[in-house]
Design a protein that fits this description.
The chain is an alpha+beta fold. The chain is built from 13 helices and 15 strands. The strands form 3 sheets. A 6-stranded mixed β-sheet has the order 13-12-11-10-14-15. The protein has a 5-stranded antiparallel β-sheet with strand order 7-6-5-8-9. It has a 4-stranded antiparallel β-sheet with strand order 1-4-2-3.
Length: 413
């Protein structure tokens, strides 16, 4: 494959720009220009946009179209060459760290290709302050997903509607899809003055939509008799996360090491660090075994006191304490990555999945939308006690049944 081919993201933006659509001024900087430090065209582009001080750098890898939207990052950065180089380096670093698991899962479950991250190009645009809207046809109707309104002081949850705030979006989306000649997902930025800017288009013509498949393979009949009615139901393999128990185990190992230092068979710092890494390897292996999974959060991030005790238990030996503290801090980061790959979170009301536009209503979430099933915080101890009584454990299959009042019930299968 030609690694120097123009990525879909840049190619479609250029087609839309040539078609007269309101695409912000942009430049595609290929990876070979970074390798050769050939920034003449980029500097000329940035010179035209110095007044904004800030630009948006969007990932543009030749193989990016084979991955889910949002897998690779877009970053706000300074409007100079140094800012663009920094943004590209960070994109690559994030792909190797916080995005490593989602990339590996797509390669395993969705047949996404192996990729050389050094072939990452960058699309640079002037930064437009505004809200993000994504549009696509689902079930024969245009739908519009709203997210990340940077203008409004009070933020709302992401939401989907068939009636956009501006009727121009419907006609504009139809014209863009007709111009490109295939079914597509379109991302807009709505600026403070109401301007509609097209910042991305993605070919989704090869992605199956479950609703459309069902309509092609279904026959409507006249009635049904049944004893039990279910409106919404989901089954998932579950990972039971109890970080309270995890921190207690780490503290116990530290206590044994301090109280019986040098005794054969007692833990040392290497063994404690290994147990932290084993915990991380356990949930990463779970994520790579199951394409779709749930996390039951008996204790996720609410054990602040225990985390502090574990992090500072070895304060009398600063070198060992620094090593342990670093490992525990990185563990928080790895937990967050694991949680972000789950499509179902079962936890107390305090926890929400922080959704960007692709996570909330991108084409890849149509068949498997994110669910957050929660209990109220004042019931936390009672609910955790019930989960332990029923015996939920990692690897079980859980069923989630949502009744007509939108109240969920979780079953251990």
């Amino acid at each position: 494959m030609n690694t120097h081919s123009i990525p879909e993201k840049a190619e479609l933006l250029e087609k839309l720009k040539q078609g007269g659509f309101a695409v912000p001024d942009f430049i595609y900087v290929p990876p070979q220009h970074f390798e050769a430090e050939d920034f003449g065209a980029l500097e000329s582009f940035l010179e035209k946009h110095r007044e904004s001080f800030k630009v948006i750098a969007r990932s543009a890898h030749p193989l990016e179209r084979r991955f889910k939207g949002g897998t690779f990052d877009s970053l706000e950065t300074y409007a100079d060459v140094g800012g663009i180089r920094y943004a590209r380096n960070k994109m690559i670093k994030l792909a190797r760290s916080s995005k490593h698991l989602t990339i590996a899962r797509q390669q395993r479950f969705n047949h996404a290709p192996e990729m050389d991250l050094e072939q990452m190009g960058v699309i640079v645009m002037p930064f437009i302050d505004g809200s993000s809207v994504m549009a696509k046809i689902i079930g024969g109707h245009w739908e519009f997903g709203y997210c990340r309104d940077r203008i409004q002081k009070v933020q709302s949850e992401p939401y989907i509607t068939r009636t956009p705030h501006d009727r121009r979006l419907v006609q504009l989306s139809k014209e863009i899809q007709k111009h490109l000649g295939f079914r597509c997902e379109i991302e807009y930025i709505i600026s403070a003055d109401g301007g509609i800017h097209v910042v991305q288009a993605k070919d989704i013509s090869s992605i199956d939509i479950l609703e459309e498949k069902e309509s092609q393979r279904s026959i409507s009949l006249d009635g049904i008799r049944r004893i039990r009615k279910r409106r919404n139901y989901r089954e998932r393999p579950v990972y039971v996360m109890d970080n309270k128990a995890f921190y207690i185990d780490i503290i116990s190992q530290c206590e044994e090491m301090v109280s019986e230092c040098g005794t054969p068979g007692k833990p040392d710092i290497a063994q404690i660090i290994d147990s932290i890494k084993a915990y991380e390897a356990d949930f990463e292996a779970f994520a790579l075994r199951h394409q779709r999974y749930a996390v039951l959060g008996l204790a996720i991030q609410d054990t602040v006191e225990l985390y502090q005790i574990a992090s500072h238990y070895l304060d009398d030996t600063p070198e060992l304490q620094a090593e342990l503290s670093k490992a525990l801090h990185n563990n928080l980061y790895q937990i967050d990555i694991f949680l972000s790959e789950a499509d179902t979170l079962i936890a107390k009301d305090k926890f929400r999945i922080n959704l960007c536009s692709h996570d909330a209503y991108g084409i890849d979430t149509v068949r498997n939308p994110l669910w957050t099933v929660y209990w109220y915080m004042d019931r936390h101890d009672d609910v955790v006690r019930d989960f332990k009584r029923v015996g939920f454990k990692t690897g079980d299959t859980v069923g989630i049944d949502i009744n007509v009042d939108d109240k969920p019930t979780v079953y251990r299968q």
